[in-house]
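User: I've been trying to design a sequence by hand for this structure and keep getting stuck. Would you show me what you'd pick, starting by listing the structure so we're on the same page?

Assistant: Good idea, let's start from the same input. This is the structure you sent:
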């Protein structure tokens, strides 16, 4: 039996909605086949009022073992560090987070808000929101850079806005079946199994990317990098490998990747003119180029490809 408590801070509940759509395995299978026992979840738990306090206090006092503490949403520290903007079960949510993270074997942050602050932490950030162990790209967040759960692991980050449902359920299964030792995490504490490839891996528009054929929203056969700001070549995620609803992905539906699994999200802090738009120098050279390539190399390669295409 693996006991889980799931709490939400500054969140829209999108990750819970995503979680409930999991298929491999589904939430039902987590319970029936993998011995996961959800002690409390704010959307699907039956406990109310004092019963919630009882579940949380039992875990904090270690009368009940807490194997996994899942957090969705930002940790709200406002106003002025008191946390009084987000009260839950009689105290600031941030205090529950501190206490439950301190007794859990594993702490899992689900979604961008819980991992690095996401949209809610965009300046001026009136709620003083932050992620569990990162604030944007900077290690630290609410629990601090040195935090380790009882198992010795830092917070496991499963980013996304929302995260893919199967990323969540598969990580919970890995913990429940004692396979976390096989799980490698990257610099941003994301499981490498889901966050090593780029979104571009498996995108049907790759040929158009190489030959620099522009696409557009919903337009088949073109690449969305050059005009509408697709971040597929800079974003680590398996969206074109483990498809959404087992059917599709943003770029397969010709919608640009927004780069939601990277700690910079939302990129450029949603500044006017930076969303769904490729930022350029001199009106034609992309300011951001695929990860791992130098700007010069990329500009040279794309103009060469374009010349060859115009001659063929
Ligand atoms: S649409 Fe995006 S992910 Fe697909 S090839 Fe173009 S840049 Fe890459
Ligand atoms: S395609 Fe990009 S924006 Fe969409 S879910 Fe995947 S990483 Fe996030």
């Amino acid at each position: 039996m693996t006991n889980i408590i799931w709490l939400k801070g500054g969140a829209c509940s999108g990750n819970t909605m995503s979680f409930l759509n999991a298929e491999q395995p589904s939430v039902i299978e987590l319970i029936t086949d993998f011995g996961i026992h959800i002690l409390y979840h704010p959307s699907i738990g039956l406990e109310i009022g004092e019963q919630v306090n009882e579940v949380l206090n039992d875990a904090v006092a270690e009368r009940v073992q807490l194997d996994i503490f899942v957090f969705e949403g930002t940790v709200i520290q406002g106003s002025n560090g008191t946390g009084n903007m987000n009260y839950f079960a009689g105290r600031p949510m941030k205090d529950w987070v501190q206490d439950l993270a301190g007794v859990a074997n594993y702490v899992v942050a689900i979604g961008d808000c819980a991992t690095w602050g996401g949209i809610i932490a965009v300046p001026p950030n009136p709620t003083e929101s932050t992620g569990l162990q990162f604030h944007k790209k900077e290690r630290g967040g609410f629990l601090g850079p040195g935090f380790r759960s009882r198992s010795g692991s830092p917070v496991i980050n499963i980013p996304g806005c929302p995260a893919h449902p199967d990323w969540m359920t598969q990580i919970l299964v890995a913990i429940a079946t004692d396979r976390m030792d096989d799980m490698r995490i990257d610099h941003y504490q994301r499981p490498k199994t889901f966050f090593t490839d780029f979104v571009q891996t498996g995108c049907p528009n790759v040929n158009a990317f190489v030959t620099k054929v522009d696409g557009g929203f919903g337009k088949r056969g073109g690449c969305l990098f050059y005009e509408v700001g697709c971040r597929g070549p800079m974003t680590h995620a398996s969206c074109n490998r483990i498809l959404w609803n087992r059917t599709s992905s943003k770029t397969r539906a010709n919608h640009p990747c927004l780069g939601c699994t990277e700690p910079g999200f939302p990129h450029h802090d949603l500044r006017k003119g930076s969303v769904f738009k490729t930022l350029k120098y001199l009106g034609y050279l992309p300011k951001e180029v695929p990860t791992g390539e130098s700007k010069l190399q990329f500009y040279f390669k794309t103009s060469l490809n374009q010349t060859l295409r115009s001659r063929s």
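That's my pick for every position. To get oriented when you compare it with your attempt: The pocket of iron/sulfur cluster (ligand 1) is lined by residues 199-200, 203, 205-206, 209, 223-225, 230, 232-233, 251, 257 (CB under 6 Å). The first helix runs from residue 14 to 20.
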